[in-house]
């Protein structure tokens, strides 16, 4: 097995937030990323859910070199490798299988593979991983589930994603076993479509202020 990549938490700087960027064009992706960065966000996850997602990763890396740019919705070894080639600095997946974990680890990039059950966490743990994405966080038990997991998986830290918004961000961030919080609430599709970049910046600034009070990454 390949040696383990560095921890994602060692890369995330500033507020412990990981907003999702879903963009139809690289130009749109850069506009979203800039709006988020203007609101104090330091890390983003570009999801592989549009045809231009890989080009979007490359474009953001070039336009905003100080932003940490990862790739999400990784479902295969081919996805993982293509994202690395496009310039992704870390990888996130919605699920975990042995094949997917091995492929993601083999890229050498920090990763947060998706888990929703104790058995999936244990599988990632067996691979030596200590940081995972908890998805879909709200539907999988949310805050209470993360508290229950903290008792048994003492060394594992989570990036909860799914069903998180400004209303419950503080509660998730306050958990000791949460290292960053992800989601799409800072980049709503209607604001992106209407190119309301100022409103995205305002949402990001609000979330950044909440995060700075509770959890700021190293
Ligand atoms: C993800 O890709 O992590 C989820 O779709 C994000 O969930 P959310 O839209 O509820 O934030």
TrEMBL record:
GO molecular function terms attached to this record: (R,S)-4-hydroxy-2-oxoglutarate aldolase activity; 2-dehydro-3-deoxy-phosphogluconate aldolase activity
EC code: 4.1.2.14, 4.1.3.16
Alphabetized CDD domains for the sequence: KDPG_aldolase
Class of the enzyme per the UniProt entry, highest EC level: lyase
Tagged with keyword Transcription regulation: no
Transmembrane segment boundaries: none
Keyword terms: Carbohydrate metabolism, Lyase
Keyword Acetylation: no
Listed Pfam families: Aldolase
NCBIfam families (UniProt xref): eda, PRK05718.1
PANTHER family membership: 2-DEHYDRO-3-DEOXY-6-PHOSPHOGALACTONATE ALDOLASE-RELATED, 2-KETO-3-DEOXY-6-PHOSPHOGLUCONATE ALDOLASE
UniProt protein name: Bifunctional 4-hydroxy-2-oxoglutarate aldolase/2-dehydro-3-deoxy-phosphogluconate aldolase
Organism: Rheinheimera lutimaris
Gene this chain is encoded by: eda
